[in-house]
Design goal:
homotetramer; 125 residues; alpha+beta; Thiol Ester Dehydrase, Chain A; 6-stranded antiparallel beta sheet; 2 helices; 22% helix; 42% strand
Chain lengths: 125, 125, 125, 125
């Protein structure tokens, strides 16, 4: 998953605004599903992941025009939640790193992650 | 309606990112309803305004820390749509100006603007 | 230029937030330069385009997961400004359309558009 | 520090997009400085805080129209960094909670936090 940095991503300090990196992580997570033919608009929109916990390390800055990579790795799977490690890099250089716990919900209540959703994440692994 | 400019609002050119001004216009439109006790979350969420047309003039730039004013004036009312003039200023200085046509929809189909919604906009006038 | 719609792009009405389409137009304009090896970070960051005027028509809505196209066409060239037509489509369906006037500035003062910048836009034409 | 939730803050799941809460934390941090007459635009723009580390807990969801509170508490002060606890609440209800490490930089290199900056944060305490 490649992320290009546009003006909208940067701030007056001349660097990528820190909260935006967390958006890029979600883009990468969603692309895993898009690449597997998952159609969020046709699916039951009451069911989806919500982010419960994120540990974020911002180790270097990124700039306008950068082309960043986002990597996603499933660390642990539970009944209704999943633990991911996501890194954002520019070439070999680590920009920031995230440990993320996501919970699968229906109408905002935790439910077992459906097999179809599980398999897509496993294929990515 | 006062809008403070934070890092998130600016870009690497050191100024407010142009598309953000259009967000501030919507904040000001929504505050008219909030000030009148309108609860968007309790209301039928299938009914709301959508923006159909905007003419935007960006005449000056705004900076980190600026405290801007947004003015909203109803120019014309039709059955299912309304024409607004919104200006964004820093003190007396005009930063940008917008002519906006909004259509009231239910499930994304145009319907007559409800009287309750009309009255709130009239009070603002 | 393809734009994928993620959660960050949508709002509680279940559709793409209108001001975001204006960001996608800028992404498409910047990609023209990126594809031509233009490095915004290395270039004199005091020189760039600013958006002066936009006429926006929002004719249809877009949804989570959509893959949109942005087209960019130079309509008119002047000394320090350029008029563009940008359309956003889902397949053949027009979602929104923009007439955009951009001014080339150095330290936020209008200057003649440099030949190198002009040529990149011409190649795109 | 009050944060109103507008359409721009929500996503197609009908709730506030998680990364946006991290923006509200920064708004609250900046308001501490604005309330103390600090002018970011006039100050040396090469000097500012950057976010190094965030532990985020998202414990409840927020909705369109909500009026949230952001609290900020200095937990620990070091030479060039500071540890903050920020909570976002709707009334008494905790929505999310953040442990944040920020580093003071000049031209993106860590330097001692200036006394003037320290004092403003102390007054807030």
């Amino acid at each position: 998953m490649k992320i290009r940095i546009y003006y909208e991503d940067t701030d007056a300090a001349g660097i990528v605004y820190h909260a935006n990196f967390i958006k890029y992580c979600e883009r990468a997570r969603m692309e895993i599903f898009f690449r597997n033919g998952f159609n969020f608009h046709e699916e039951d929109s009451n069911e989806h992941f919500v982010v419960r916990h994120i540990v974020s390390d911002f180790v270097a800055v990124a700039y306008l025009g950068d082309l960043l990579d986002v990597t996603t790795k499933v660390i642990e799977r539970k009944n209704s939640s999943v633990v991911l490690k996501q890194n954002i890099l520019r070439g070999e250089k680590l920009i920031c790193s995230f440990d993320i716990v996501m919970v699968y919900v229906k109408n905002l209540k935790a439910i077992k992650i459906p097999d179809k959703v599980f398999e897509i994440m496993q294929n990515q692994d």
